[in-house]
Amino acid sequence: METPTADDLLQFRDYSSTSATNNGAPAQINVNSPTHASGGGRGGIGSGFGGAGGQSSTQRQRGDPLADLIYDMSTSAQAMAGGGANNAQNATLDGSGGGGGGGGGGSGARLSFLTIEYYQQFFNVDTYMVLERIANSMIPKRASGNYLRMNIGENPDLYGPFWITVTLIFSIAISGNIASYLHHASDGYHWHYNFHLVSYAATCIFLYANILPAILWALFKYSLKPVNEADAVETDSATYTPTLLSLMCIYGYSLAIYIPVSILWVINISLLQWLLVITAALLSGTVLIAVLTPALRNSQFSLFLIIGILSAHVVLAAGFMLYFFHNPPESPVATMPLPTAPSVLKAVTQAAGKAVLPGNQTH
Amino acid sequence: MDAKLDVSTKSVISLKRNTFPLIWQMFEDVNTSPSPSLEGDMSIPGKRTTTTTAQNGVPDYNTLDEPIRETVLRDIRAVGVKFYHVLYPKEKSSLLRDWDLWGPLVLCTFMATILQGSSSADSMSDNGPEFAQVFVIVWIGAAIVTLNSKLLGGNISFFQSVCVLGYCLTPVAISLIVCRIILLSVQTRLLFFLRFVTTTMGFAWATYASFIFLGQSQPPHRKPLAVYPIFLFFFIISWLVLSHN
Fold first, then answer.
1. Nearest Cβ partner of B243 from A84, A163, A193?
2. Which residues pair with B59 in a beta bridge?
3. pLDDT for the residue numbered B7
4. More confidently predicted of B238 and B67
5. CA-nearest residue of chain A to B237?
6. Which residues of A touch B133 (CB under 8 A)?
7. Which residues form the Yip1 domain (chain B) (predicted)?
């Protein structure tokens, strides 16, 4: 479908067939309650479906039951097509502002959380936006002052956090296995692949990326500084607390720096490993604090929150390095396998597992 | 009226006709022949003479009369055609149009059987993934990748995408077989390098094939966003293949 010009959008054109616009999406009937006229009309005019949308909204006011049915079906069709084509179209025209508008229009239509279109509004990002957010999370001061409120707050996405955490889990597990293989390659130790690293890494990272933003969100809401309406100049920004989704988005992207770092942790030089921990934690910790400054300013415990955020980040990085990668070179013993911390923990867990589920090992 | 009626019946009927004309008119079209014949055909409505599948995949021919071998062979041939199209990805419509999950099931079971670690008495050594872990990674991984491309606005159905991802495991399975054969001899660095090259080729082939099938269904500004999870999915499975020993 060719990019519509400004003239196209300003005219009320009736697009002939849904197949040309839907690109083969299956026709479905939305059994939700009728959407608001304002939401459907706004989304309709914005994307050039204004002909059908405009006529339907005028018909609806007559209260005719047939017109109600037509309106419902046309708005549900627009919600199907608008979720996909609207976002793509808006993205070609406006970039992040249009994406925010399209996302806002979609949520204004009050979709049920049981439909897939409800979740599409959290994936309303393009490639360059994801790359931009990753770069903003690694380089301090790259993002603007109101990044949290204007950029992430308007269009929080779940694509970045989810896939960055999954990539981080597997990169830590794979690099951890490579590190232990290289460490034991010189001995006669017969190396076995340790699949449990995946589960440990997954638990750790998901807890950090989900529980910590929730705690932070609760703390922000609880510790909001009371605002005197007469004194404050900007009450709007003084009462600002970030939404839970924005915090999860920020935290998810802040883990992106650990992906290349985890590959570099394979190099078994202790000094280098610690240097990497400090550098990565400082960089992404600084970015976290800088991005969260508008919200931290409004909190009573701002100092404690800053210390808490930074220390959680440092503890996470150091924990990864020590548990998965820290294999300090000891005096080589020929026959006994070296009791490094991962293998000891692994053995204990496996023994516990075997005791609890005796029947698990039979194939 | 029927000519088989004898005269006495006709006279009775004519008598009744004269005495109760209105009532008779109500029953005039009743067939009073002794044994109405019931004949007909049992045929499937809308049956066509061609043997090609219709647009929605429903076969048009009559499958009640054919031998079972014919039915089974038809499905096997369809699965075989899909394997062929994955290995030489030129024409993409057949995988998408007539999707089925037999190929992915066979491949997944085969790979999980080979990849599972054997339980050993040595408590210090750990093993490869269990059968269930590989199974879950393949199916839940394919479901998550499909969900991701749907959420990004792709216009492909759920099972079509799972079907394509499952069939594109074929090169990875082939590389697993080759690696298993290489592992039969004593390991050297050269053989490890050979396994590495084989696994990398299988991974690249799988990603390229699935990109051909699934790449068109995404909006153009989000294509890398949708392709990256597919890349990650095949990377993880190839890693499992490579680290198996």
1. A193
2. B53
3. 56
4. B238
5. A170
6. 195
7. 88-240
Say which range, A152-156, A251-255, B163-167, has the weakest mean pLDDT: A152-156
Q: What is the pLDDT of residue B108?
A: 93
**In terms of C-beta density within 10 A (0-12 exposed, 13-18 middle, 19 or more buried), how is residue A79 classed?**
buried
Return the residue of B nearest to A27 by Cα. B155
Which residues of chain B have a CB within 8 Å of the CB of A126?
221-222, 225
Query: Two tokens at A240?
Result: 């600002």
CB contact under 8 A, B244 and A363: no
Cβ <8 Å between B221 and A91: yes
Q: Are A191 and A281 in contact (CB under 8 A)?
A: no
* Partner residue facing A190 (CB), from B125, B152, B224: B125
ipTM of the complex, rounded to two decimals = 0.70
> Between these two residues, A170 and A57, which has the higher pLDDT value?
A170
Q: Amino acid letter at A309?
A: I
B222, B223, B237: best to mutate for the A interface, most A CBs within 10 A? B222
pTM of the model: 0.66
Computed over every residue of chain B, the mean pLDDT equals 79
- Map out the domains of chain A as residue ranges: 119-227+237-326
Integer Cα distance of A347 and A99 in angstroms: 50
For chain A, how many residues are written?
363
Minimal-distance CA residue of chain B relative to A127: B222
Identify the residue among A93, A111, A171, A193 best suited for mutation to test binding to B, counting B beta carbons within 10 A and taking the highest.
Answer: A193
CB-based contact A346 B126, cutoff 8 Å: yes
Torsion of CA A337, A340, A346, A347, to 10 degrees: 50
* Burial of residue B55, with CB atoms counted within 10 A of its CB: 0-12 exposed, 13-18 middle, 19 or more buried: exposed
Residue B224 has its nearest CB partner, among A88, A119, A127, at: A127
- List Cβ neighbours of B227 (8 Å cut-off, separation of 6 or more): B211, B214, B215, B218
Domain residue extents for chain B: 68-119+129-244
3-state per-residue secondary structure call for B62-84 = CCCCCCHHHHHHHHHHHHHHHHH
In this structure, what token pair is assigned to residue A85?
Answer: 């084509």
Kindly list the residues from chain A whose CB atom is less than 8 angstroms away from the CB atom of residue B155.
Answer: 22-25, 84
B216 vs A: CB within 8 A = no
Confidence of residue A88 (pLDDT cuts 50, 70, 90): very low
Q: Which residues contact A243 (CB under 8 A, 6 or more apart)?
A: A153, A156, A217
Are the CB atoms for A220 and A235 separated by under 8 Å?
no
Backbone angles phi, psi at B53, to 5 degrees: -80, 150
Average of pLDDT values for A33-38? 47
* pLDDT value, residue A330: 55
| Model confidence pLDDT, tens digit, residues A222-234 | 888 887 767 666 6
Q: Which residue of A126, A163, A174 is in closest CB contact with B228?
A: A163
The per-residue pLDDT for range B84-123, each reduced to its tens digit, is 888 887 766 766 788 889 999 999 999 999 888 665 544 4
Task: Say which range, A83-87, A205-209, B9-13, has the weakest mean pLDDT.
Answer: A83-87
